[in-house]
Amino acid sequence: MSSPAPAGEDPFVIHRRLLFTIAYEMLGSAADAEDVLQESWLRWQEVDRSEIRAPRAYLVRVVTRQGLNHLRAASRRREDYVGEWLPEPLLTSPDVADDVELAENLSIAMLTVLETLVPAERAVFVLREVFDVPYDEIADAVGKTPAAVRQIAHRAKDHVQARRPRVRVVRSEHEEAVERLVAALNTGNIQGLMDILAPDVVSVADSGGKVRGAARRPIVGADRLARYLVGGMAKAAGDLAVTTMRVNGRLAFRMELNGQLVAVASVTVENGKVTQIFSTANPDKLGRLEQETALSR
Questions:
Q1: How far apart are CA 82 and CA 216, in angstroms?
Q2: Which contacts (CB < 8 Å, 24+ apart) does range 113-118 have?
Q3: pLDDT band per the 50, 70, 90 thresholds, residue 268
Q4: Residue 237, class by beta-carbon neighbours within 10 Å (0-12 exposed, 13-18 middle, 19+ buried)?
């Protein structure tokens, strides 16, 4: 085995942000993504570097294979999850939002759609559509022929297109809708909420069964959701405040009770109205919201 490169020159260190982003896109969990990187790092330490002609492609392949192993195990664990399961939200920097395509693919809405793909489809879609990895390299990573990968990519893309938001919303429109939603929540203004929520809005909450009073099934409809939100905030035992924050590349909002983070929510906006709300209150999934996570492609 050849001597390892200095830390600053090691390809794994150089590409770590990319590798983490791939793993997170595949798994929807920062904790699982970190596990994948740790396992991949150990394998990287064991290889003869002199035989690796393209370190970036090699590392992407290793991370993808480890990600697939975790993805298959995670799907079994999630069968026992209490209530709805949502991806783990991340606090992201403004540069992620500036990359419109990356921000769209990192959004909670998109990651939730990716949950409906089987593991091989998700890996192929992420590598091809998000990171533009060549088909032959994807084939090496997932253990299939390039022809089979092309078919999987086509099938996965069609599947995602049928379920993703129909309209790409400009950043300013999205942020205006979030600001209006936050203002209505802070004032308990039911009519204000009704004005910004789409009539058929769907709200999905992930509490992992650990938050008393949290909805375990989706809430559908503007009137029902507005009254649920205002009623729930009125019952809060203390000072409940709602503020904006940037989550997974998009403006979202957080709820703090007596200064402590208790929930974060991302939204989908179409035609100036909020059509989806994805809220996470499971305390095990709120750990990445105080410090920015470095992401790239």
A1: 8
A2: 113/160, 113/163, 113/164, 114/25, 114/28, 114/160, 115/28, 115/85, 115/87, 116/159, 116/163, 117/156, 117/159, 117/160
A3: very high
A4: exposed
Q: Which residues are CB-neighbours of 91 under 8 A, at least 6 positions away?
A: 245, 246, 247, 288, 289, 290, 291, 292, 293
Question: 29 CB contacts (<8 Å, ≥6 apart)?
Answer: 74, 87, 88
Q: Kindly give, in sequence order, each residue whose CB lies less than 8 Å from that of residue 5, ignoring residues fewer than 6 positions away.
A: 11, 49
| Cα angle 60, 65, 71; round to 5 | 120
Q: Position 197: which residue type?
A: L
Helices 171-187, 222-234: crossing angle, 10 deg rounding: 50
Q: 152 near 121, Cβ under 8 Å?
A: yes
Do residues 269 and 194 touch, judged by C-beta distance below 8 A?
no
Neighbours of 143 (CB within 10 A): 13
pLDDT over 90 percentage in the chain: 79
Residue with tokens 């994948």: 36
Contact in structure between 129 and 100 (CB atoms under 8 Å): no
Q: Is residue 168 a contact partner of residue 104, using CB atoms and an 8 Å limit?
A: yes
Tokens matching residue 118: 């089987």
Give the model's pLDDT for residue 2: 47
Strand-strand pairing, 273-280 and 197-206: parallel
- Residue with token string 């470095």: 294
Rg of the Cα trace of the chain? 20
Q: What are the C-alpha distances in Å from 238 to residues 233, 257, 279?
A: 10, 6, 20
Q: Which structure tokens are listed for 29?
A: 């969990």
Q: Which of 227, 293, 274 is CA-nearest to residue 109?
A: 274
- Averaged pLDDT for residues 71-99: 88
For 155-201, give the DSSP string: HHHHHHHTTS-SS---HHHHHHHHHHHHHHHHHT-HHHHHHHEEEEE
